[in-house]
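pasting input
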Amino acid sequence: MTAAVSTAPTRKAASGTFLKLFARNRLAAAGGMILIAVVLIALLAPVLPLQDPYAQDLAQKFQRPFSPGHLLGTDHLGRDILSRLIWGTRLSLVVGVVASFGAAFFGSVIGIAAGYFGGRVDNWLMRAIDMLMAFPYILLALAIVAALGPGLVNALIAVSVVNIPFFARNIRGVTVSLAHKEFVDAARLTGQTDLGIMVSEILPNVLPVIVIAMSTTVGWMILETAGLSFLGLGSQPPVADLGSMLGEGRNALITDPHASIVPGLMIFVIVMSVNLVGDGIRDALDPRLRSGALTRPMARTVVDREAVPPAPEVPALLDVQDLRTEFRVGKRTLHALSGVTLQVRAGECVGLIGESGSGKSVTALSVMGLVASPPGVIAGGTVRYAGQEILGAPFARLRDLRGDRISYIFQDPLATLHPLYTIGDQIVEAICAHHPVPKAEARKRALDLLESVRMPNAASRIDNYPHQMSGGMRQRVGIAMALVNDPDLIIADEPTTALDVTVQAQILSLLDDLRRERNVAILFITHDFGVVAQLCDRIAVMYAGRIVETGPTGAILSDPAHPYTRRLIACVPELGGGRRELHAIPGLPPAVDDLPPGCAFAPRCDKAQPACRGGEIALDGFGETRAVRCLFPENADAEARA
Amino acid sequence: MGAYILKRLLAAIPVILGITVIVFAIISLIPGDPATAILGSYATPENVEKLNRDLGLDKPLVQQYFIWLGNMLQGDFGRSFSLNRPVFDEVMERFGATLILAGTALVLCSILGVIAGVVSAARQYGFADKAITFVVLIGISIPSFFLGMMMILFFAVRLRLLPVSGMYAIYGGGDLPDLIRHLIMPATALAVVATGVVARLSRSAMLEVLRQDFIRTARAKGVGEGRVIWAHALKAAMVSIIPVIGVQAGFVLSGAVYIETVFQWPGVGRMLVNAILTRDILLVQGGVVIVAACYVLFNLAVDVAQSLLDPRVKT
């Protein structure tokens, strides 16, 4: 009953893939086959050549399994266990399925009524359901059996009633989301009665949910009725379901265990196969499992590359060379980065700019192996810190660098700070991960830092939780955390995007001050040229997983060489009496699993020539300090000027 | 925090009242005449009438309910006719034994289940994950009463390691080591299914949390992987694991009914089953109300624990 029922996709087209997914799940398929076999045998019980399950023969009592005439032996009254087992299975299955239908029927009626009518009806019905759920389920079942008296039908009723709340809650949830959909309103306008709408409009849409809920609970109900029978409260002699067979066998457990083991194993097999099938159905229906999104990222990105490019002649603080990061989802491979080369020198601020999906965040995360993996894989290239290869280094080395020499500031500080630790503890932890200093000293340093990032009331704020702060304050915490070990490089991944404009300006000027004070290099990832102009010495423009243009900020802003850069700058609105026309770039960035040959921007470029689509285009020097990946750069005489 | 607990306590009162209404309503469904049921079919009409008057069964239902409720509030749950002692005393004594059993099982399933779930998630698709998933699948499919019987056969009868049943040895028992020896099998059998459920949910809660951005932040800080998993991720995952453990408490309490029968444990579950079989209605009524009320209070404690863990919960 703890299983949550997810809303099923009701599309017909999905049913083909559903069956395929289900069949691919070998365990589920095996469970399904066992279950079918058990059900078939139970159905065929009347025509199978079985002995009379009630024929007693005290002279033959407790025959061992495999004795002549009794394949599974006999019980305490000399009855054939095989026959009783098959008839008992039949009975247990019938009872479980009927109980399941009963619970589903009444639960759905209550759930649909509550969800459809809402308001007071909903309130009262759900209160009553909550009241039923306040019982440990068996107490309720026992109370019902106590009132009605022991017996299989009464046990069935008890188990069914106990499961009504589960159905009612799930069905109500789905109905609420449907009750105000257009098709329901439309039906109302045509003058249909409430009952008519519930039956003809709501019911077909909640039916899949009812079916799933039944598939997840039927095993449970078989087990519960068997349990009540086991206690002597269900089926009464001489009729036996699996539970009462087990209960009768228990009296001779020590001398003749087979009379207990046989029915017990049968219950186990049934429940297990139902569980397997239920799991299979849920997995096949859960779209998140299909996309592989429910995998957890490992401590570092998987590196799967052939050769490491040789080190550059003049090593910088950070050298990213020909970096290729992919996402491998099922059979598809998304080439997020197709050869990114980038340098950051000590104390320098480099802006990495591009639209969403251009690969700028992936570049940032690849540097310290933080791309979620699976599905991310670094498939080529290298990252060097101060001349030293990082991606192939042992994890211990990577961990030493993370947060100590190279630290990160992330975009959304509410999601990126741990919600259940105080910000003080989180900053202290960043210190203690690298330096064995006493807690008190680390805390003092954390406080100093909070003050230097201009956190108001730092002394009291340090014991706050992230949710108690504003976005701007949280980002100050993020910055303090990045600075805490005096790093050489900060990788700031859109640190101001989630903030409003005034706060954004404060955070930017704070970063600018801090980098000058502390001489720390920054790799600043953004989609905003305004931000770049304010902060960065150099910029690199990314498009579809490649750097398409690099150079000093001023030169690129005033004289963009790549058509994409020019179009991107044209998208930035000007304040005041702007004379520039605002142009959105037509079309969309290409899908990175299907990149066109040649220039990826060609399909959207107004200057594209056939040659642009021909083959690989190199990132060529453009003047002394710039480079551009374009056959026909804008404003060729800019090259002369640069 | 104090105000929060008080608020929750007040909110529990209508729930407990609701429980008494439901129990009363169910018991009133009894077909036929309870007095005849108690006295048997050879009772004289005079005796039946007298018993009905003694039990207050000649009054209207609503009045009967309030009399019953009033008596309960004064600690008077009536007298069990089969045991010939006050229901309250009997239930409390038996409930103690059940709490020892169910409490041990709950602690076992919480600790083992969470550890298994965390290891499974941290090694997703690895050998440990597959092994744990397989064992968990078997665990949640075995009926606890069957498992208990098999344990008796193996550990008590074949290996002679542990006592077959009961709570204390009849001769020379009664101390703590004796209790523990008797407790091992029933508590384990009772914990197995719940452990499986907790392990499954812990695994998926951990997988969910490990994908969160704050885990990436911890890794970006250079925090060791052990701490990332067992401190950062587990703490966040506990927010969704604790309610599951609360739900499991109900399941463990329910499973105790079977396990007490298998192991002859003198708990409230076995008492209820016997009371049903002997038609001792007052004992059933009292037992169900007391245990259900305690369960409500336990769930309240789970909510309080939740609010202590998660500062975002409004208290």
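fyi Residues 551-642 of chain A form one domain.
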